[in-house]
Amino acid sequence: MPASYQPPMRKDEEKNRTHSQSAETNLKTETLTVRQVLDHKGHEMFSITPDETLRRAVEILRDKRIGALLVCDTEGALVGILSERDIVRKLADMPGQTLPQKVGDVMTSKVQTCEPSETLMQVLKTMNAGRFRHMPVMEGGALAGMITIGDVVNYRLVELEHEALQLKQLIVG
Predict the structure, then answer these.
(1) Total number of domains constituting the chain
(2) What is the DSSP track for 80-122?
(3) Is 18 part of any domain?
(4) Where is this region: Disordered (predicted)?
(5) What does pTM read for this prediction?
(6) Mind spelling out the 3-state secondary structure of 123-159?
(7) 1 in a domain, yes or no?
(8) pLDDT tens digits along 37-66
(9) 3-state secondary structure of 164
(10) Domain of 127?
(11) Most buried residue, 42, 69, 78, 158, by CB count within 10 Å?
């Protein structure tokens, strides 16, 4: 043991002790909310009406480089969601006859939504249980955004990179 090492003594002050984990760091992921993700990524949403064709929906999905569209009525109320998976299923059922179909005939009408105050863990559990990757966010009965599994994963990765940088700076000084 080096001569400069002094083992901790009972009289040492508690405030000098450090902990690699704390309740705050362990619970941080549990308390991240949908609002934080939306504030970071933005509240932009893309929608289509139920009477438009799948051809138009596919064009929007391609042009916007997204995986799902909100389906809203003429007043802007959410009536469904149309995902790439919905379209692929229809393609398998009706090859060569899919694109002229109406969005309203193919969309998922029982839409699972969340609120901005919900935690990311709650949302991920719901998405995993329902086997879907896109979830509309509702606030006060109105659409507030769309959250995806990719958004959640990306947000967490950025956060982990930041934590790693902080640890590196702590070690290096």
Answers:
(1) 1
(2) EEEEHHHHHHHHHHSTTSSTTSBHHHHSB-S---B-TTSBHHH
(3) no
(4) 1-26
(5) 0.72
(6) HHHHHHHHCCCEEEEEECCEEEEEEEHHHHHHHHHHH
(7) no
(8) 898 888 889 999 999 999 999 999 999 999
(9) helix
(10) 31-172
(11) 69
